[in-house]
Amino acid sequence: MNASNENKKRAVIILSGGLDSTTCMGLAKEAGYELYPLSFDYGQRHKIEIENAKQVAEHYGVSQRHKIIKLDFLRDFGGSALTDDSIDVPNVMNGNGHAAESEESEIPVTYVPGRNLLFLSIATSYAEVTGSEAIYIGVNALDYSGYPDCRPEFIHKVEEVIALATKVGVEGKGISIQTPLINWSKAKIVAEGLKIGVPYELTTSCYNGKAEACGVCDSCRLRLKGFEEAGSKDPIPYLT
Questions:
Q1: Are 51 and 39 in contact (CB under 8 A)?
Q2: Rounded distance, CA 45 to CA 51, Å?
Q3: Fewer CB atoms near the end CB (10 Å): N or C, the chain?
Q4: pLDDT at 117
Q5: How far apart are CA 118 and CA 126, in angstroms?
Q6: Residue 197: how many CA atoms within 13 Å on its side-chain side?
Q7: Residue closest to 153 by CA, chosen among 190, 116, 125
Q8: Which pLDDT tens digit goes with each residue over 98-146?
Q9: pLDDT tens digits for 190-213?
Q10: Which residues lie below 8 Å from residue 45, measured CB to CB, with a gap of 6+?
Q11: Closest Cα partner for 72 from 33, 31, 44?
C-alpha cells in the first residue's frame, strides 16, 4: 500500500442493495471516502437485494472490497415479516399496509429484532481492520419511525459503545456512524441521489423478493411516492 492510499480516508458502507443504502454509497463517495461495502444475508425473503448490492459495488468499482456476511440464523429466530413466512408483508392488497405519511404508534411487523445492532457491530470490525474512520448506514427516522434501531438515540449509543470497545476508540481515533438520510424525506433522498448519479436502476426496495417489484408493499409504495414527489420516474420494473 503506497503512502497516498494510506492517507486516503475510508468508510464502510452497510449496503443492502436498496435505495437508501445505495444513496449512502453515493454520498460517501462524494465526501471523498474510499468505499468498503458490506452486505448481509440474514435470511430475508427479499434475498434478491444481495444481487443488487453486488451490482452497485461493481458500478462504484469496489467489488473486490465488497463483503457479504451470512446471518441467516435471523431467519431461524423469525419474529419479522422479512424473515418469517408465517407473517404477511404489509401491503395495500392484504389491507394491513401503513400509509407512508402516517405516524404509527406500533413497531411495524417488518422490524427485524436486533438487525441494525448486529450490522453495526460487524461493520465496526470491518472498519477497524480496513482503517476506516466512518460507517455509513441508511437509517431513516421519518419513514417507518416505529423502528427502534433507526432512531438518532440508538445511533449515538452505538457510537459510545464503539469508542469503548475498539482499539481505535481507546487510542482516541474513533469510528463515526454517518446517517446522512436520518431526517430526509424519501423525496429528498431520491432528489439528492439523482444529483450525484446514484444508480437507482440497479437497486430494489421490494420486500417480496421478486424480479419485478410488487408496487404494493410498504417499501415499494414509499419508494414510488419518493420518486413521484421528486418529479422523477422510478427506473426499476414493477408488476403493478
A1: no
A2: 13
A3: N
A4: 97
A5: 13
A6: 4
A7: 116
A8: 544 444 458 889 999 999 999 999 999 999 999 999 999 999 987 655 7
A9: 999 999 999 999 999 999 988 899
A10: 82, 83, 85, 89, 207, 208, 209
A11: 44
Cell, residue 18: 436498496
Q: What amino acid is encoded at 186 in this protein?
A: K
pLDDT at 77: 96
Give 30's Cβ-side CA count (13 Å radius): 14
d(CA 5, CA 32): 12
Angle at 44 between CA 221 and CA 209, to 5 degrees: 50
The grid coordinates of residue 101 equal 405519511
Say how far apart CA 13 and CA 21 lie, in whole Å.
8
Averaged confidence pLDDT in the chain = 91
Q: Give bridge partners of residue 11 from the DSSP assignment.
A: 35, 134
| Per-residue three-class SS string for the chain | CCHHHHHCCEEEEECCCCHHHHHHHHHHHHCCCEEEEEEEECCCCCCCHHHHHHHHHHHCCCHHHCEEEECCHHHHHCCCCCCCCCCCCCECCCCCCCCCCCCCCCCCCCCCCCHHHHHHHHHHHHHHHHCCCEEECCCCCCCCCCCHHHCHHHHHHHHHHHHHHCHHHHCCCCCEEECCCCCCCHHHHHHHHHHCCCCHHHCCCCCCCCCCECCCEHHHHHHHHHHHHCCCCCCCCECC
Do 201 and 236 contact (CB within 8 A), yes or no?
yes
Residue 95 in grid coordinates:
389491507
Cell of 173: 481515533
